[in-house]
Amino acid sequence: MASTVQYPAHQPLTVGFDLDMTLIDSRPGIAAAYRVLVAKTGVPIDIDLVVSRLGPPLEAELANWFPAAEVPAAADLYRAAYPDHAIAPSTALAGARESVAAVRALGGRAIVVTAKNEPHAKLHLSYLGIEPDTVIGSLWAEAKGEALRDQGARVYVGDHTGDVRGARVAGALSVAVTTGPCDAAELRTAGADVVLEDLTGFPAWLAAFAEEQAA
């Protein structure tokens, strides 16, 4: 799917990135926060299953384990535990820092648009020394597309079919990585324009894309 949005030639290249399982491996941290939630509520949660399908908003996952009326309180408990338990165990994925740097090297803007709430997203990025120009949180799937469009993003990089849908709404090129819960076939079927194994291949792809755009 080629971008359907026309950008002025003088507008800097803006590239959006998802956070969880695109830039960072947050599974150890999220698992730790869920263990605190289980200890506080006594509700049994299959944490291995939870971290195998990261992407959708927290409340959507909690709805699998708590009655609807209890989801907001469970989300509050989880988020209260998150800074102390989830930040330190999480790591940058291979190529993450280099990919953000590649955007900057082209004079572009690197932004993060994520379903994670913004304060926690910023904590992760600061802890790992990844410095995007803008961080926008609490958005999922098509809602990501609205923010990407507002930011003038020409490319959105993510690991989930929801990220592909967000890119489509924005009229941005969808670059998908298979470091998350969705495999290459799922991502292509959802409409991803480019599928990479991980972000290590992204800087070279971006350089070729920028050269093609300038031609």
Automatic annotation (TrEMBL):
Listed GO MF terms: hydrolase activity
SUPFAM superfamilies in the cross-refs: HAD-like
Record carries keyword Iron-sulfur: no
Keyword Hydrolase in record: yes
Top-level EC class: hydrolase
Highest rank taxon of the organism: Bacteria
Keywords: Hydrolase
UniProt-listed Pfam families: HAD
EC assignment: 3.-.-.-
PANTHER family the UniProt entry points to: 5'-NUCLEOTIDASE (PTHR43434:SF20), PHOSPHOGLYCOLATE PHOSPHATASE (PTHR43434)
Protein name: HAD family hydrolase
Protein source organism: Streptomyces sindenensis
